[in-house]
Design a protein that fits this description.
This protein has 210 residues and is an alpha/beta fold. The protein is built from 4 helices and 7 strands, in the order H-E-E-E-E-H-E-H-E-H-E. It is 23% helix and 10% strand. It has a 7-stranded parallel beta sheet, with no helix packed on it. The N and C termini lie far apart (98 Å). The relative contact order is 0.09.
């Protein structure tokens, strides 16, 4: 009787060990697969922070995080330099997350329907950092920037330094005027679509671009 009991206990331990190894192997496989993903969609999740799983791979090319409750982004995002599309629309971001300035491969950035607002009252103040100067040079491949339905009173200078920008949507903000534009500015050579609708601009001067 005692021998049979020991044998059953040994079998149970053996089976438990096999199950543990199976779980470990399964978890390892999932982790490996997650590290190879090129596309992740975490939209409509009511997230207050980006899940760790979303940042597990640095070869990610598309990340969709729209319709959440994000107020800030983790610094680790700056390591995802392969990202080509980032959708952060319909969140609660009040400023341009600094980590975004390092995403050198990014082609499309959707920040629409957030709470992004200027950090100073007048445009000429150097303290304007709602979109930091580093973004203008760091996002060297950005072609589409969607900032519609935010709280911008004027365009931050960093936008004017986006040398590859083709589409800029700043509709439904609080813009009262455009900044002085010069033909030598990078954005003047690349921009093809500019949406200024539903702002407070009443007159667009003929010499807006010099």
């Amino acid at each position: 009787g005692g021998f049979g009991s020991d044998e059953r206990e040994a079998d149970a331990c053996f089976q438990s060990g096999r199950n543990a190894l199976a779980r470990e192997g399964h978890d390892g496989l999932l982790a490996f697969l997650a590290s190879q993903l090129l596309f992740q969609d975490f939209s409509h999740r009511e997230l207050f922070m980006i899940p760790h799983a979303a940042l597990r791979t640095t070869i990610l090319q598309e990340l969709r995080l729209s319709y959440n409750e994000l107020q800030q982004l983790p610094d680790e995002l700056q390591d995802h330099t392969c990202l080509r599309l980032l959708d952060l629309s319909e969140n609660r971001l009040a400023s341009f997350p600094p980590a975004l300035s390092s995403l050198v491969s990014l082609k499309e950035l959707n920040l629409s329907r957030n709470k992004i607002a200027n950090t100073v009252i007048e445009r000429k103040h150097a303290e304007e950092t709602c979109i930091p100067p580093s973004a203008g040079f760091g996002l060297s491949n950005l072609e589409t920037l969607l900032l519609n339905r935010n709280h911008l009173d004027f365009l931050p200078d960093a936008i004017l330094d986006l040398q590859m920008l083709r589409v800029l949507d700043v509709s439904a903000n609080r813009l009262e005027a455009l900044p002085e534009l010069y033909s030598t500015m990078p954005i003047c050579a690349s921009l093809r679509v500019l949406n200024l609708s539903q702002n407070r601009i009443r007159i667009l001067a003929d010499d807006s671009i010099r």
